[in-house]
């Protein structure tokens, strides 16, 4: 049974990763399917979610298989503590066997027990840098829900979710770069037409406007394209 479960999980994740790489579906849908697949294939899990947090204390739920992951993330932000945050910032894997008996994160556990039926949690680090972190989390309404097999399958799922998240971020950066290039190109064209100069001269003028106004180049370009005058 464990081998069949593992094989099914790997096949489903492979299909989703291929879809993401081919851009045959949107990013939010892929993350949502990964999260729902995690909840289905990890033994003992009834809910799953991906938590994203920043160093300034903001916490958000990137995807979730139900209502409780988002509520538990809100409780983590409320108290600036919790297993998902610790998994992402400090440790790679965290398991809580019974929230009602857990001694760590006292304020979080108190509110989680009072406001949700969740009793068992597993959290796995997806990524962490100087500003942002991510964790994949599994939840059960039963205490002691996650055994060693669940941890193993959770780690497999977290590894693939981390790869998917990296693809998402790379795609977003690429799209942002393309949008910036298009804006700068439009602004250069407007300057070339207005002042009868070539593209090199137009770009140098944009750079000087950026420097003199202490404004990013792409922001100056956007102001010109949208009909605003760059601030001096």
From TrEMBL:
Provide a Gene Ontology MF annotation, just one.
kinase activity
Q: What is this protein called?
A: Response regulator receiver protein
* Gene3D superfamilies (UniProt xref): 3.30.450.40, Winged helix-like DNA-binding domain superfamily/Winged helix DNA-binding domain
- Species this protein is from: Mycobacterium celatum
One of the Pfam families matching this protein, by short name: ANTAR
Cross-referenced SMART domains, in alphabetical order?
A: ANTAR (SM01012), GAF (SM00065)
Domain (ANTAR) spans: 164-225
Q: Which UniProt keywords apply?
A: Kinase, Transcription, Transcription regulation, Transferase
């Amino acid at each position: 049974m464990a081998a069949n479960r593992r094989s099914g999980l790997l096949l489903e994740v492979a299909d989703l990763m291929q879809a993401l790489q081919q851009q045959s579906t949107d990013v939010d849908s892929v993350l949502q399917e990964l999260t729902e697949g995690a909840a289905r294939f990890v033994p003992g899990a009834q809910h799953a979610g991906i938590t994203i947090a920043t160093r300034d204390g903001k916490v958000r739920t990137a995807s979730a298989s139900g209502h409780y992951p988002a509520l538990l993330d809100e409780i983590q932000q409320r108290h600036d503590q919790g297993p998902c945050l610790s998994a992402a910032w400090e440790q790679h894997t965290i398991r809580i066997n019974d929230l009602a008996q857990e001694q760590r994160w006292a304020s979080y556990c108190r509110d989680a027990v009072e406001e949700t039926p969740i009793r068992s949690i597993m959290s796995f680090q997806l990524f962490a840098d100087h500003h942002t972190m991510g964790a994949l989390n599994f939840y059960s309404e039963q205490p002691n829900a996650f055994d060693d097999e669940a941890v193993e399958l959770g780690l497999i799922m977290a590894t693939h979710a981390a790869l998917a998240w990296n693809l998402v971020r790379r795609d977003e950066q690429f799209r942002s770069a393309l949008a910036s290039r298009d804006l700068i190109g439009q602004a250069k064209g407007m300057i070339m037409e207005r002042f009868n100069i070539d593209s090199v001269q137009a770009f140098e003028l944009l750079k000087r406007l950026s420097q003199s106004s202490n404004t990013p180049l792409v922001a100056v370009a956007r102001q010109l394209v949208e009909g605003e005058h760059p601030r001096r």
